[in-house]
Each structure stands twice: as C-alpha cells, then as structure tokens.
Amino acid sequence: MSEASGATMRETPETKMAGVPETMRAWVTEDEPGSLRLRTDEPTPRPLGDEVLVRVDACGLCRTDLHVIDRELPQHLEHVVPGHQIVGTVLQRGADAHRFAVGDRIGVAWLRRTCGRCGPCRSGAENLCQRSQYTGWDANGGFAEYAVVSQAFAYRLRSAIDPVRTAPLLCAGIIGYRALNRAALPDGGLLGIFGYGSSAGITAQIAHARGARVAVSTRGTGNRDRARDAGAVFVGDATAAMPEPLDSAIVFAPAGDLVPLALRATRPGGTVVLAGIHMTDLPSIRYEFLFGERDLRTVTANTRADGEALFRLAATLELRPAVTEMTFNRIAEAANGLRSGALSGSVVFAGWD
Ligand SMILES: [Zn+2]
Ligand SMILES: [Zn+2]
Predict the structure, then answer these.
(1) Cα of 19 to ligand 1 centre, how many Å?
(2) If I label 182, which of 35, 41, 106, 190 is the partner at 20 to 30 A Cα–Cα?
C-alpha cells in the first residue's frame, strides 16, 4: 500500500478540497537573469504523497534568492518561484502526509529533500547529500500564495508565533546558528562578523546570549547602525582594523576579498567560517595569515537537526529579528533594493495588496 511507486502520488479527496483556487499569484524568474515577473495565473501546487500544501503567511527574502534570480547559482528550472523562508498554515495533505493536521503552523526552509541513503545522509551530514534539493531553486518556493513541502522537511511551529518575525529564522537563523557552531567560539570570546545582513544580525543575538562579544566589519551606514544597535563592541568597514585579535570570525558577505582580512584579524588557533552559498573568488592568500593553526571552514546548507535546535533556542531566547515588512506585491522592488544595498537586514513579505 505504501510502496514507492507512482501509485502513492495520487490525489485524495482532501487534495481536491474546496477553498484553494486552481491558480494563484506567484513571482517567477524570467529568461533574463536578474528579473522576476508576477504571474496571476500560476497553477496552485497540489500536495502529493508525503507533501502538505500551505497558505504562505509570510516569506523572507534571502541573499540566496538573489543568487538564484541573478543566476549566480546555476539555473535548475527554466522558471522557478524563489523564496525559502516560509511560514505557512497547512491547508491540504497528500495521501501519505499524516505528521501535521490541517490548520497547523509550519516552516518551510531551504533544504527540501535528501536521498536518505548515501553516506552523508546516514551519518548525520545530510547537508552534504549529493542528491539534495532546495526550495525556490529545484522546486517552487514561497514568493507565492501557496506552496507545497514534504512533511519530513517542514518545521513544526507554535501557532502563537509571529509569522513575520519568524520567517527569517528559517534560513538566516538556521545558517547563522550552524556558522556559529562551526566557528568554535570560546566562552566569552570575541567574534568578528564580516558583512552584516539578515543572518549576521540573528547570529549576533545568539552569540550575545552565549556571553560572547561581537565586532562587526560591514559596508553601508544602515548595516553599521543596526550592528551598533545590536550591541557590537566595535563597528567599522573593511578598511578599519579590529580592536583586538578575534577568537573566531564569520564571513557572511559574498566577497572573497574579505577572507584574507578575516584571517589576518583572527588570532593563532582561531577559526574563520565562510557562511555563504556563493562567494566571489578568493584572492591569493599569504600563508602567514593561515599559519598559526588558523582553521578556514565553510558552511554548506544545514541539517534538519540544525533547524530543530535553532527553533528550540529561538523559543528560549525569544529571538525576534528586526524586520522590514512589505507586501508580496513588492518582491521585485525589494530584490532590487537588497542587491543595490538600499535595503538591509531581514526583509519579510506578508499580505497582498
Ligand atoms: Zn543523501
Ligand atoms: Zn537563504
């Protein structure tokens, strides 16, 4: 009855439930890199097998969405709906989806599916699965009225949460959490943050809660103001020297030129983490910047365990990122603003005009 065949991908009476229209509004990538178009007649997805359909209550804008829109990441679908920080309400369930009830609040994140059988998947490193798929890249995401997700890759959220303040946790928060763990920051240590966007802001909150001090190097007065407001002990741009050697550093900006600066600012034995999925080429690095047993590490997506741990932490710390809220109608404008630097921090879409 549950054999892995097309027979399980049937529609149930629930998937045909009234109340969900046949078509929806959705932002879709266009042929031209860098552009998005609002479609009003995109077919509403149907939840098949282990999938659930959600009404998108809020969706965050991530720099990775820009990498998809601008084709800095290779094109996986000819046209795709970006958006992978979705807070939604379950409206329909596929025939094999029993984990959530209709009406439950869930989160949909970047990691969409893994093979479950390869070495990394079986050893707790599913973020390194070679057959993994991603929301808003390999399948349509949340810049739309509705979206579907496999129940196993969704996060259960409390019904009382604020969708707008929660959406950035689904990528910016999870990746920041993993980056901070990879940074091996000692208790009470000094963390350097290079590039202060959505993920960096949440990471700084977590680091402060762990008793760390945070020093920030970033472009743009908006980012620097936000870093100061968040309690950074030092804020400057890439030309400003850090006040003392860093114990660990995380580079969030997708700029390879920052890597030697971060290494040089970090004490011997310290760790530098590169948190982005895309980065411009690293320049040639003097060996003495690495020598002294400095570790240079990357972050590659996340595991579901990272996400579950971040949401437990978010509940105890009351993590509530400061967000700029906009309606879904303004997604193209917001993408341009994030690209140009006119918009900074966590941008979240909720509601349609
Ligand atoms: Zn795998
Ligand atoms: Zn993201």
Answers:
(1) 37
(2) 106
